[in-house]
Amino acid sequence: MKNFRLSLVGLVLLFITNAAIANEPADYFVGDWKVEVKGTPNGDATMVMHLERKEGKLTGEMRTEGTDPAKLTQVDEKEGTITVYYNSMGYDINFSFTKVDENKIKGSLMEMFEATGERILK
Asked: pTM higher than 0.85, yes or no?
């Protein structure tokens, strides 16, 4: 009877551990995002934000057609939100984004212009 109880407790712990591992969130922001910014002085803009995790930290670059990629200088991450910083044409730029659903984000450029993003599925 003692062995039965011990086996039962072990089995329950195994199920709990497996359930906890299965419920771990995916690394949501990692990947490529098509970002659109509305209403800038130069009109609407589209770019690709590339994010990857290296040594536990998010890093990446902003890619705009016709220019060299701009390496991210800083990435601030909180639950469901992200702020990325980079330099473009001598200006310090930042985007803030919040998760909308599995493949969409919304936010702003420099807290002045509306920005949206959609995950680029491969």
From this structure: no
Rg (CA), the chain: 21
Dist CA 27 CA 51 (whole Å) = 10
φ, ψ for residue 35 (rounded to 5)?
-110, 130
| Cα–Cα distance, 101 to 79 (Å, whole number) | 14
CA-to-CA distance for 89 and 16, rounded, in angstroms?
A: 52
* b/e map 56-87, b = 16+ CB within 10 Å: eebbbbbeeeeeeebebeebeeeeeebebebe
pLDDT, tens digit (0-9, with 9 covering 90-100), for 58-97: 999 999 999 999 999 999 999 999 999 999 989 999 999 9
Element (H, E) at 19: helix 2-22
Q: Could you tell me where the beta strands, DSSP code E, fall in 1-122? A: 31-40, 43-54, 57-63, 70-78, 81-88, 91-101, 104-109, 113-119
Angle at 85 between CA 99 and CA 45, to 5 degrees: 70
